[in-house]
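It would be a great kindness if you could assist me with a short task in structural biology. Thank you for your consideration; the sequence and its C-alpha cells are set out here.
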Amino acid sequence: ECDDGNSIDDDDCDNDCQSQGCPGACPPVTTVKVDIWNENEMRFSGTNRCMPSWDQVLLSRFTDGGPANQFWRSVLQTDKGKARLDGIASPTHCGEDSIDVPLLGLATKVLTFNGSVAHSGSELVGMGRESGRINYYVDPISVQTAGGIVSVPDDQMINAAKVSRSEAGVPRPPTSGTMANGGAATVDRTSASHKGSLLVFPKVELRWDSSGHLIQDTFVELTNDYPEDVRVQMYFVHGDVCIWADNSFQLTPNQPTYWSVSTGRPAGVSPFTVLGGVCPDRDRGNPGGKRLRGYVVAWAVDSTTGVEIDWNHLSGGAVVVNYSDASAWEYGPWAFQSLPDVEVGQTLLAPFGQLDLDGTEYQFAPDQLLLNFFASGTVLDSGASGTVSIDTDLTLWMALQDFRQPAD
C-alpha cells in the first residue's frame, strides 16, 4: 500500500502503481459539488468530492473521509433520488489549485442478488453550456483554412488566439433548430446520442482474478458513416496514473470497426496494457484481483498534417464484458460536433492541436450533469423472485485535458 496524501481517495496502490504515482494524483483537480433531491422533492446540499482529471467511485463511498454522504438511503429517506453535479473551484474543500471545469460522465448500476452481481450502464445527461478544451501535440505546419493559408510556428501552436469566424469568413453556427452539417442543435442539453467529430469514451476497464486470468474486457466500437476515408487520432489514458498512449488509424468509407481493449485486435491498435500500472481490484467479489481502467478520446484529423478537421460522421459504443459473471452491458460515447460551416474534411480553427469545446470550434461541454439514481442501501423486493440491492458506480471525466508531451 502507498499513501497519496489524499484523504478523499483511499485507494491502495501496488508497487507498479507506486512507481508511477498513486491514484488520484492526476491534475487538475476540481470540487464535484452535488445537489440532491429525494422522491418528496426535498433538497439536500453539502455532498462534495475532490476529483482529479478522471474519477470512478461507488455512490456509497462518494465522500469517504469527507463530508456527509447524502447518496445513502438512510439520509435520503427515499429509494430514488436525483442529483445535479457541477465541477467548481473550491479552495475550502480542495485547495487553491481547484478549478471550475465541465464534467462528462457515466453511471453503472451494480445489482447484487442471490449472491450474484450484475451491471447495467447509462450515460448521464448534460445541462447548460461551459467551455472545455483538449490539447495535443502536432508538428509545426502550414495548413489551408477557410481564410487561406495559415502558417503556424511551433511556439504559437497552442498559445495563439483562435482565428475568429469573421476573419476566416465562416458564419456563426445557429443557436437553435438545425446545426451545421445536419445535426440537431444542443443549446441546453448535451448527450451521447448523436454523431460527431470528437468522441469521448469515459470508461474502459480490464480486470484479472487472483490467478492472473482476464475476467473483464471492454470492446470499443467506432464507425465512419461517410463515403470517404478519414484519419482518427486517439489517446488511451490510464485513469489512475498520469500516463497515456497515442494511437491513430484510417477508417475507410462507411467502415465500422472495433477492438478489444485487452489486445487491441482486430483494429490493430495498442492494447491498454501498454499503459502498465495495474492496480489492486477493490471489488470484494474479486479478492486478490487486479484492474486497469481509464478512458479513450478519439477525433477526426487530417491524414497529412494531423490537425483537427470537420467530420461529423463518427459514432461508436463500448461493450463491457465480464466473463466470470457471463454478463455484459454497453454505453454510447459523448459525441461533439464540429461547428464551422466548412466542407467535410476541411481543417477547423487555429490554434491547431487545441480542441475547443466552446460553441465555436466544437459544441460546448455541459455546465452540469444530471443523475437519476437508486439510493445506496436500497433493497428492491420482487416477491418470490427474491431481493436485489443496488449501488451505483459513477465515472466522471474532466473536459479539460492536456496530452502534449512534456518538453525535453
Notes: Confidence is low (pLDDT under 50) at residues 1-24, 143-147, 149-189.
